[in-house]
Structure formats: C-alpha cells, structure tokens
Design goal:
The protein has helices spanning 4-12, 63-78, 109-116, 121-140, 192-195, 204-219, 229-238, 244-247, 253-262, 274-286, 291-299, 305-309, 315-321, 332-352; strands at residues 20-21, 24-32, 36-43, 49-55, 87-93, 96-101, 143-144, 153-155, 161-163, 170-171. The protein is an alpha+beta fold. InterPro entries: Kinase-like_dom_sf, Prot_kinase_dom, Protein_kinase_ATP_BS, Ser/Thr_kinase_AS.
C-alpha cells in the first residue's frame, strides 16, 4: 500500500509531458527518485533541449535535501569545462526548485560496466584522462566532488565523459556551500580521510575515489568490498588493494603502479593533483599502438572534424559497442595451474592401479 506521504511526493512533481516549468516544456521522464524527477525539456523560445531536474514541493522535503540541491546548482555554475555537465538555468516552479542542465543522452559509465563487466585498460585510461581533466578544473576552483562513482560519470554522443551530481561536493572557498565534519559519500569509493570525516581535505580525496573506479573498470570489481559498511570501511582504512597487473595480465605495470598510487591510504602519497594523473596516462597511451590516435579522435571538438573522421568511433561508441567481458573470468595462469594439478592427480591414480 502506498502511504499518504508517498502519494503527496508523487503528486508534487509534474509527471506529464507538456507541462511548463519556468521557460521549459517538459518532455518524457528520464528518471524518478524519492526527492524528485528528471525530465527532458525544451526551451519554449529557443527550442534548446535540456535535462530538467525537478525537486518535489519544498513542503515535502527536508531542508538538507533542498540545501544539497541548491549547493549543486551553485557549484556547477562556477564550473565551465567540456567534461563537466553544464548548468543553463535554475529557478522556482510553484513550491519546487528546478534546474535546467546539459542533456547527456548516452547513459553513464555504471550502465556500461553493468553490460560489459570490465573494460580494456586502454579504454579505462581514456575515460580516466577525461575525468581527471574535469577534476583538475573543479579542484582549481576549490570544488571537491566527494561522491565520485561510475553512476555520476555520463557519456555524450560526441565521445566526452561528463562529471555530474555535485550534491555532496565541498566548496573550499565558501563555507555556506559546504557540509563538513560529516561522513558522506558512497562506501565503495570513499578514501580514508572521508570515512573519518576529516575537515582538512583537498583534491586528492577525489583522486582516491577515481582510483577505485579505474580499478573497477579494468578488474570488473571494486578493490574493496564487503557485506556492510563496516567491512568496506575497514578495508579502505587498513587493506592494500590487489595489483591490477596480477588480476589482468595484459595490464601494463606502469598503469597498475599509477592505480596503486591513487589508492594510497595517505593523501600525501597519492599523485599531487588530477592533472598529474591525466598527464601520466596520456604519456602511457601515446606509447601503445594506435591508442593515442583513438584518444585524439574521442577528444576532438573541431567543427570540421566530421568530414575526415566520421568513420572512426569515438570513446562513447567504443564503450557502448565493445565486447562483453566476464568480470569473473579466472586468470589464465590460474587455469593452467589447475590443469597441472589435475594432471598430477591423474598420473598418481594411474600409478596406483
């Protein structure tokens, strides 16, 4: 049975195409949650297509939810980068708050990983370079994301990875836009300093979370997992992550070294900033077959690029059309070892007959 409170929340947000929110006509619903919904939208005068994030009526929500939404809008307006979801407009619609932002139509990295299991290290590196560039831009402006995960990384038609969902972000330059002294985030991607709710944080917090994502992309699972938050937190605080080049034999040791550094427990032992991560990966990609060329095509944003390069798939197309990998596939060396064991056992059995 649906509670009266749930019914009020459901009725508080527009659900029908054709309703006007600010200057935007609502289209189909892209998603709905406990706090609101996201719709396709079209500006009534310019025809610009956007995504409309609309909260339920303010009377139905806790003040912290409203504050988090306002904080996200304020932070996104400070940022202007091709790898960060852009905000166009925000305002009030009756008793609810709305935000019009860039419409990114190709899903998220989380959806790619659900379908494919894991990615070749080169594709993972290309994703990471773009995310690192977004983080570098945000960090230089005092914005720490604090909830980096595959579900918050969106894919655009033109091959760009877009960072979004800054509701838990911390603005180091404006305490009014910050929640500090609290353990916030997503368990499987939280660095030790976030778990222990330390106030003295910087961009290296996001670098750790990105390291967890990189590990997950290549290995097919996160480096630290458990049945509950206590088990996961204990591993983040105490356990060393497995080596990627052991789990995935074709992963270069230099790539595994970088991921290990990103997952260091102490921030001072991690790469000093996100740009250093991007630079390291670009150097690694440039020395491997044609990966650097594919990367350049994915990054290209030239008005004339389509004439000569339309036949080459961009990063989004490769992520969504690549082979489906079995993340639980055993290591080849493990299979060989098992085969040897069975061969020895078979020989012993024959000898005893």
């Amino acid at each position: 049975m649906i509670s009266q409170d749930a019914k009020r929340k459901e009725n508080a947000a527009p659900s029908n195409a054709g309703e006007l929110v600010g200057p935007y006509w609502l289209g189909r619903c892209l998603g709905r949650g406990g706090f609101g919904a996201v719709f396709e939208g079209t500006h009534q005068e310019t025809g610009q297509r956007v995504a409309i994030k609309l909260l339920h009526g303010t009377k139905e929500l806790e003040p912290e939810v409203q504050n988090r939404f306002v904080r996200e809008i304020a932070l996104l307006k400070k940022l202007d980068h091709e790898n960060i979801v852009h905000v166009f407009d925000a305002g009030l619609n009756e008793d609810s708050i709305y935000c019009a932002m860039e419409l990114v139509e190709c899903g998220s990295l989380k959806e790619v990983l659900i379908v494919r299991g894991r990615l070749p290290w080169r594709e993972a590196a290309e994703v990471t370079v773009q995310v690192s560039r977004a983080l570098s831009h945000a960090h230089q402006r005092g914005c720490i994301h604090r909830d980096l995960k595959p579900a918050n990384l969106y894919l655009s038609e033109d091959g760009f990875v877009k960072l979004g969902d800054l509701g838990l972000a911390r603005d180091l330059n404006d305490s009014r836009l910050t929640t500090s002294g609290q353990t916030v985030g997503t368990w499987r991607y939280m660095p030790p300093e976030q778990i222990t709710a330390q106030d003295d944080i910087d961009g290296r917090l996001d670098i750790y979370a990105l390291g967890c994502i990189v590990f997950e992309m290549v290995a097919g699972h996160v480096p630290f997992d458990g049945a509950n938050f206590a088990e996961i937190f204990d591993q983040h605080l105490e356990s060393a992550p497995p080596r990627l080049d052991v789990i995935v034999p074709d992963c270069p040791s230099e790539f595994a070294d970088l991921v290990d550094a990103m997952l260091e427990k102490k921030p001072e032992n991690r790469p000093k900033n996100a740009q250093q991560v991007a630079d390291t990966l670009e150097q690694l990609l440039s020395g491997t077959s044609n990966a650097s060329r594919l990367y350049q095509l994915a990054q290209a944003k030239d008005d004339h690029a389509g004439e000569a390069e339309t036949s080459s798939p961009n990063l989004t197309q490769r992520l969504q059309s690549g082979p489906i990998a079995d993340a639980r596939k055993p290591n080849t060396r493990v299979l060989i070892g098992i085969g040897i064991v069975f061969a020895i056992l078979g020989a012993i059995v024959l000898a005893l007959r």
